[in-house]
Amino acid sequence: MDFDPTEVQPKESNWLELNVRYEGQGKAEFTSPEGQVFGPFVAEFTENGDSRIETRYDSLISADPDYRGADLPFVTGAKVQKTSGGRSFGIGGIENHCRELSFSTSNGVFSASNVRLVGYTFGQSAILRFRVRDAKFETGNPNPPKYFAIPMLNFVAELGNRLVGDHPLRIYPTPVVPESVPEEYKRIAGFVANAKNSGVAFTSHGRLHFIERLSDYEERHASLQSGTQRKVTAVLIGDIGSQPASTFTDFLSWFPSDLLSALSFASGTEVGRLWIEIRDENGTLIRRLHGKSQLPSFWEGDELLEKYDRMDGNAAMGEFVATYLAQPPDKRFYLEMAMNHARFGSILAPFHLHDILDHLIRGLECLCREHKLVQQNLGSALSSKTRASVQAIVNEARLGLQKLADNSAASSALDEHRMLTVIKSRAENRHTTENNFGLSVVALLQKFGFCDADVIDKYLAANPRPDKIPDWASVLAAYRNATIHEGYLDFKKKHDANDVVRVCLQLKDALTRVILRECGYTGTYTSVLRRSYGPQTLDWIQPTTPASHLGF
User: Fold this and answer.
1) 538 with 501, same domain?
2) pLDDT tens-digit readout, 529-541
3) Could you please report the per-residue DSSP string of 164-225?
4) Residue 424 maps to a domain
5) Contact 366, 334 (CB under 8 A)
6) CA dist., res. 477 & res. 470, Å (int)
7) Structural domain range at position 498
């Protein structure tokens, strides 16, 4: 018999809504003065992150008789001013706090407990507009929660995992190849059935999570590349386990929100999220949680992880996310800060060059601080013989400075005496410790087994810089001082843009490798210094590596 490939072709499952609207009758409760408004409400949430919650209310009931029939003063929280002729009101703002609102729809109940009145219109009809930080839509589904689903904005990373097994929330469920398919066609049937079977999969606390692209991903990605700021491109699915998921706040109390920063760092594109859907074991909606969305702006930076790890063939993104989430919360906190700075430190970022360098400096300083490498003990790297020679020179200088200071005091040159005392103090301590950004970065890289400084210093010794700065640590310190203390780089008179770009690429690559190694990732990555040469191991820079591979 003939085999028809369409029989096992994956078919889209249209369970995910990207624009939701709730409409029904309900009320909003206010606190100062106390009262309620009743009438029709509408709440809309779009895939762009826009929201609209408002009511054209029918009636307003105030618990304070002074506000009865005075809707505008009630809403604005204006103070009552009683006079012999009756009452008047002061000028209010939007000061009557809304405690909660709720309304029933044909499919469930929308409610919010963290509400802010943000606007009003009084005319032929009265309109109140709200913002919510913790809201939910309950469908009335009595089944226990099993999964969460989060629409992901601007997720464009490579997908390297094959999703195994049946899951009710797949965008493209993988068809089962029937036994009736002839043996000679089963291989091609399996290929057709798994044509859409890819995603990013990882575990967190023993629970499976995966990210799958939407069916029209290519069109959405093209729209982003054409200038659209944000689009839902994928959905994150995960197992809830026994974690609380009744409210937006409950969910965020355990969900690793820093996951978005990890995905953004690795893909080079900021990833955001919309609302959160809670679904049962069959994939049916129980509730939808609304709060503050994380809304990214699209620009393509450095994609650091390709589809597969070249070392073992595993999915690179899934492997990285799993190792990152396995780190202790305190460690993930500072790594997230460093990852955010690293992403903004891309030469492809839509920023000024000095801002890009600034982010890279801050990312590395963050890690140096955590590893207690901000202050360097200068003598520790010297041999005992050299250290003794340095001490003798310093002692001689100290005695000479002390003699000058004493002479100044004797001649009543008090200003000169004060200055010489400070100079002497600095001379005494200058050789012991130093807060030097360049030395800190070199020490950080050495701690993780990276020898970038050795390769670069060897090159600089043979090829002196025009500004005569002798080594990489001094170059980094000079650029850090110009960026942080002077506030800008002077490309007209002092700094060379090509040199700054080279330093930025060196720092971005170094920062990337330290972050990946701290996360426990052992696979390959795409080096910004070697973009066209494919994935590299984290220790690809060796003492014998040509300096040309580092941008020279």
Assistant:
1) yes
2) 998 888 999 999 9
3) PS--TT-SSPPPPPPTTS-GGGHHHHHHHHTTT--BEEEEETTEEEEEEE-TTHHHHHHHHH
4) yes
5) yes
6) 12
7) 354-379+435-550
